[in-house]
Amino acid sequence: RILIIDFGSQVTQLIARRVRESGVYCEIHPFNAVSEASVRAFAPRGVILSGGPASVIGTGSPRAPEGLFTMGLPVLGICYGQQTMVAQLGGTVEAPDHREFGRAFIDVTASCPLFEGVWAAGQREQVWMSHGDRVIALPPGFQVVATSEGAPFAAIADEARRFYGVQFHPEVVHTPHGAQLLKTFTHQICGCAGSWTMATFRADAIKRIQAQVGRGRVICGLSGGVDSSVAAALIHEAIGEQLTCVLVDHGFMRQGEADEVVAVFRDRFNIHLVHREASDLFLSRLEGVTDPEAKRKIIGATFIDVFEEEARRVGGADFLAQGTLYPDVIESVSFAGGPSVTIKSHHNVGGLPERMNMALVEPLRDLFKDEVRALGRELGLPETMVGRHPFPGPGLAIRIPGQPLTRPLLDLLRKVDAIYLDEIRTAGLYDAIWQAFAVLLPVRTVGVMGDSRSYDYAVALRAVTSTDGMTADYYPFDHAFLSRVANRLINEVKGINRVTYDITSKPPGTIEWE
Ligand code: XMP
């Protein structure tokens, strides 16, 4: 396995994804949590130093542990990682007037094991650069193997010690052969076999779950989302009957979703599943509430109450299963300082583990989202579940802004949502979209239907593309598609007479309306 030391680059996670895509397990550790002892304990076959926003010239800037360079391990420094390696081994880094950002070209000046099979001396290659500082004098033992206009030492190598540095970013897609270069580092230079697959992960995870849980009992909240579904299927494979799943049905799910969860988990996987229909309770506690944050708090608290009640009813449990993923676990390196502001309190059931005072089973905490999907397929979960768009915990309840929630309004929105998604699937667009949904607007507008006047609700349709939900752009549907959806909605859903499409990006908008 490979250790990635994170110096706070925006794209450190991409390094990990490229490495794992090449069949090598790796972890990201923040620079300030890494010591020579922790590297030894992790026992990697090689180390990658990430980029980062700091300048090595500044005093007190982040460093790799000194001992790292005498452990005999191959090291690849990327951007800031290259600069700190150079500075720590006796070379020089300067802040030039000329910075390089975006697409750039490097000239390969010497053959190098890192370029094996892709780049040869004399070739010119496209890469992606993003740096202010640059290396101007090499430490002893190093030679330059590629140059660019802005970086005379675009790639450097000390073959005897197996230390390599690149000023560009091989982990981004704008460096066309970057993934191959990382693979050459991990496979050829570090000697990793590349045999880490979802099948091996599944087998190892099952052993880990069995060792952790023993004869204990585990309880797991199921929502129909990808993460909890995959976690439940995996844990069930490990401990069978010792697992109980609870589906708290708050009445804000999509059409048919609760039924699908029951069909898959109870009927197909034979998992002990408690389906608690609690929509009356949720609606009564939300009576008259329109404030978005108040809604989220009430839904979160009610969820916990119901979940605890069901946990007691099945005789309690020793462990609580959660579908926590790797991006939530990585301690991000922040130079900005200060807590970030709460835009929306998404962690609607965040208090559950503390409240219930149970140990956690989190079998997905080493995986990225796409890896969780691959594992779900490996476990035989249906594609409709594994490939599903993200869906917020409070569900449709946060898609009826400005008016108190009622069952008729929820049913109306559920119908609209189902037709919209049906059209998206039929048009083959589902996988190209990050998330798509409808919002029931708190206005009624005048229309004509046949020969009479109508006075009905308006809906807004939303569809966005995104990679992580942090930023998003609206999906550019063609007009024929939008007309088709609008026609169907107005003809098939009584109570709707106007359809609009939301073309706001995030930022400045958010994905959800509230
Ligand atoms: P926003 O609206 O903040 O959404 O741009 C980003 C992503 O988070 C989802 N979201 C939520 N998920 N509980 C959740 O579990 C929430 O309260 C919540 N609010 C937003 C949203 O659907 C999108 O995927």
From TrEMBL:
Metabolic or biological pathway, per its Swiss-Prot or TrEMBL entry: Purine metabolism; GMP biosynthesis; GMP from XMP (L-Gln route): step 1/1
Domain GMPS ATP-PPase: 196-388
Cellular component GO terms, alphabetical: cytosol
GO MF annotation: an example: ATP binding
Annotated InterPro entries: Class_I_gatase-like, GATASE, GMP_synth_C, GMP_synth_GATase, GMP_synthase, GMPS_ATP_PPase_dom, NAD/GMP_synthase, Rossmann-like_a/b/a_fold
Reactions listed under catalytic activity: XMP + L-glutamine + ATP + H2O = GMP + L-glutamate + AMP + diphosphate + 2 H(+)
Active site: 79 (nucleophile), 169, 171
Top-level taxon of origin: Bacteria
One family name in Pfam for this protein: GMP_synt_C
Alphabetic keyword roster: ATP-binding, Glutamine amidotransferase, GMP biosynthesis, Ligase, Nucleotide-binding, Purine biosynthesis
Signal peptide: none
Function: Catalyzes the synthesis of GMP from XMP.
Protein name per its UniProtKB record: GMP synthase [glutamine-hydrolyzing]
Organism: Pararhodospirillum oryzae
Gene name for this UniProt entry: guaA
